[in-house]
Amino acid sequence: MSHASHPPTEHGSHGDDHAHADHGVGKYIAVFVALCFLTACSFFTYSRFWPFHQTPEVAWVFMTAVSCTKAMLVILFFMHVKYEANWKYVLTIPASIMAIFLTLALVPDIGARVNGLFGFGGKYSEERQEHTADFNDQVLMLDTSKEIGEHGEDGESHANH
Amino acid sequence: MNETLTHDPSHADAGHGHPPKLVYQPALPIPNGKLFMWLFLSTEIMFFAALIGVYIVIRFGAQVWPATHQVHISEPIGAFNTFVLICSSVSIVLSLEAAKSHKSQVARLWLAVTLALGGVFLGVKAYEYGAKFAHGMYPWYPRSRIFERPDIYFGSAVRTRAAELRSQLDAPNSPLLASLKNDEELQTQLVEMKQTPQYARLLKALEEESKEPVVSPGEQDAPKAEEKEADAAGEKAAVNDPDAEFKADLRVWLEMTFLRPAANDAEHDIDERGLARLAAEIFPLPAPGVESHAEGLNDRLHWLKMPIVIPGGNMWASTYFLMTGFHALHVLVGLITFAIMLGMMPFTAAKAGVIENVGLYWHFVDLVWIFLFPLLYLF
User: Fold this and answer.
1) B337: burial class by Cβ within 10 Å (0-12, 13-18, 19+)?
2) Cα A95 versus chain centre, distance
């Protein structure tokens, strides 16, 4: 096991490992600070100072970008993938491709069932439609909730989740 | 497999001073344990990608999806849990570094910190789950209390629950009745009710109804045998029942608040808007963007447990609990592994490989949460 923890790598020398150990803690703290900062960035979209509340798509794109950055930091530094030899591609790339195709494969059926996609799909069975909430239900519920909130004396909300 | 051959014995006495140095190269230049962990993680990538992918496809393909505060999700709590997991990721790499540098006590300490942080994460998650369960949001059979739309099915469920409460109140020595007498909120509701013009009329109507046992529309779905027994017992006790007045008031309140508004029949002529209003009284939906949760009858009277209407709420519950549940399960497995390591393993440099492999798993768990947090709490 002892020599197994120092496998021959592309870079070859054992000196690399010691170099990482020496600068490891500082590097990890830097990554930690970056991760905290990026989490705060995601959380910022929830705050009242976020300027794009009217167009949630902006927040979605922003948060996806932030999440991917965070994921890369964790994978590269905490999981040491940055310092691994080329075998890392053998395991990660096929899995990632499968994951992406799996998601895409769901789009024509499940994703397009309600709203349709390029003119295809977009049809629930009558029975299903009868039991499924639609946009009008949402509007009606929000409307009546607002009504009660305005007129009811106990209509104030509270932060008990 | 990882043996390094320094020389080939067949060439040992060939007379050459420098035999060729042959190096055995394994298929992948990593220890077996690490190879196994990465293979396992690559299947895990696909597993969670499927869950997250399904969520994205369902959520953006849905006609309506509840806003976070409509399903009582708290963003600050989610952000706190994200922070906890990031800290635990740092602590486990520090444990690995310490083990590599032969500081076994430090390595042990950092792993204990990781275990504690993972415990905090699960504790917070359990608190969040508890809050959802308390509001009747859960994904399993018989069913959660979530209805998709304020339709007759919802109305019927409200009537069933009201009838259930009524029969519980009529039962001899009802524990519910005992707890309700001290419910201040209910007292307020009853006082308000007595000021309405319908009160006296309804009280009289219900008194007459109890004399001739006719099943009202609201009781069609209730267990009838139990109710008859309860009625019989109630009649006997009614002569000197000190709670008779309170019980009668409660019956009128249930009738007025739930049974009549929910009776979507020709006699009462309540339309969809009336049912929506009833649903909003029980469980109001805050407008998207509102920073807190609205409080309804279900919140103010915890024993009520009435069905609620959240458009898109059932699919939300299924996906939310499936994804966070599988993630929490992975956290739990990690914690069990940490506990076993802390109990049984010497934290020497030779065992650094084990810490590295467990660390890889733990970072992956963190990685999944990095995507779940914005998707579930902020999107």
Assistant:
1) middle
2) 17
A25 contacts B97 by C-beta, under 8 angstroms: yes
Q: Are strands B308-309 and B146-147 parallel, antiparallel or unpaired?
A: parallel
Chain-centre distance of CA A61, in angstroms?
A: 10
All residues of chain B having their beta carbon less than 8 Å from the beta carbon of residue A94 are: 42
Termini Cα distance of chain B: 48
Interchain contact, B287 vs A7, CB within 8 Å = no
**Residue B90 token pair:** 């740092």
Encode pLDDT of A17-75 as tens digits. 444 444 578 999 999 999 999 999 999 998 888 898 888 889 999 999 999 999 999 99
Residue B9 DSSP one-character state: G
pTM, two decimal places: 0.81
Q: Which of A6, A33, A84, A141 to mutate to test the interface with B (most CBs of B within 10 A)?
A: A141
Chain centroid to Cα A65, Å, comes to 9
CA-closest candidate to residue B310, choices B142, B66, B131 = B66
Which residues fall within 8 angstroms of residue A135, CB to CB, at 6 or more apart?
A: B63, B64
